[in-house]
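Encode chain A's predicted structure.
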Amino acid sequence: MSLPWPPQVLPQTPPLAPTVGGPLPISPRFFRRVPNRERVVVGLDDDGAPNSVRVQQTLVLKRLGDYVFAIPAPVKSVLPGPGTGSPPGRRTNQILWQGFSPGIRRLSVVADLQVAESAPLLPVKVHVEQSGGRSVVVIENVTGVTAKSYTADVEPVGLSQVVGRIRNAIRRDYSAEGLNVEVHGPQHPVDVQVAAPLRVSGTVGSRRFSAVLDGVRRKEVRLVVPGAAPKISMRVRTVAVPDRVRTAQSVRVQLANTIDLELTYARKRQYDQFLAAADPTGHSSTTYVYRTSPRPVAAAPLEAGGSSDNTMGWVALGLILAFGLPFAAVVWARS
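Encoded structure for chain A:
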C-alpha cells in the first residue's frame, strides 16, 4: 500500500501553473539539475493587501548545448535580470528562454506579475486593523490545506525503511516518491492538515519580530504597535520540516507521523518555488519580501493595432533592453 502521493492529495500550486486557454506549451530542451533561486517582492497597501508582485528568478545551466523552455506565469512585463547570459522572451502567461549554453549559462529575469492571479498563492497574508489609536498587524501562514490520508496497522520494519527514504530525500533536497508500506488488516480514511513551515521576520513600525509559523499548530502572529498604518518590512522563508517519528511510538502513531513528514516536506518544496523551476528535480530556494509601498502607476493602454502578446521575436528587443536596463535591475535586486 502506498503512502498518500503528494501530487494527488495536495494542490498543484504553487509553483504558478499554466493558465487554462493560454498558448500551446513549448517542448522543453534543457539540462537536469538546474539550480533555481527566486526573490519575490510583494508591495503592500496600508491595510496589508498586495498591490504588486515582482519576481527575480535565476537559473544556472551547467552543461554544453542548446536550451529551449518556457516558465508559466501571469506576467505583465519581463526584463533581463542581473548577470543574465541571454535575455528572456515573453508571450501571454509565459517567460521564454532559448539559446546556447557554452558550459555554464546564468539566466536571470525580473518579471512583474498580475496581482489578481499571483497574490492568492503567496505563503503569507497580512491584515492591518485599527483600534483605539493603535494598529494590530496579523501575519498569517496561509499554506495550510486538508489532504486525504488513512490509518492502519502496518509492518514496522518496512515502515522504518520508508522513514529512512524520506529523511534521505530531505537531506539531499529531492522529492520522495514511490513509498509503500505493508498493511495488515483494514485501513480507515482520515483527513490531515498539511502546511509549509515558515519563518517570518522583519519590522512593523519600529518593532522588530521573528517567528516560526508551522501553519497547523501555529498559524499567525499578532503585533500591536502605536499609531495608524505602520510601515511593514519582512522576509519569509521555508524552514526545516519537523520530524516527529520515533521508534518508541506505536506503529499507528509512527505511520501518522511518517505521512505528516512526507506531506509537509512536499508542501514545503512547493513554496520553495513561486515561479516554476526549469528542472523540478533540481535545488530551489525562494525568499519572499513584503513591504509597504505605493500602488504602481498603471501603464498607458496600447494604441489600436498593438498587441500585449510578446513571442520569441521579442528576444531581439530584449538584447537592446539588456544594455539599457541592467543597472536598474541590479539596484532593485540588492535593495
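The longest helix spans residues 251-271.
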